[in-house]
Amino acid sequence: MTAADVAALAIRIGSARYRYRDELQLHDGIAAVLAAGGVTARREVPLGDRCRIDFLVAGGIGIEVKVDGEAFAVWRQLQRYARRPDIRALLLVTTRARHAAGAPAVLGDVPVTVLVLRGGL
């Protein structure tokens, strides 16, 4: 996994248009975009107690999708994921700019990328 791999995923996801009414429909759209690009991603992968990441891509790239919620809660969740040995990088895909405000570039030693999607809901 390299920074270029994460950037390529962010570009692929961010370049698509999504029609969704809730987070699950957005997950479905992202899964379709990844599959169309030949990216193998497992969905709803358990990482341990109370930890289930939305997508896990080869190389340990975890993708978490959010359409709502408080920024503090989102980052607390990502901190839990970052402590898992199978997570090498995190990509937060969100529809809320507040989730990106003040976002750290690294959690522990895990690089974090934030992609804010426009439109939808």
Automatic annotation (TrEMBL):
Superkingdom field: Bacteria
Protein name per its UniProtKB record: Uncharacterized protein
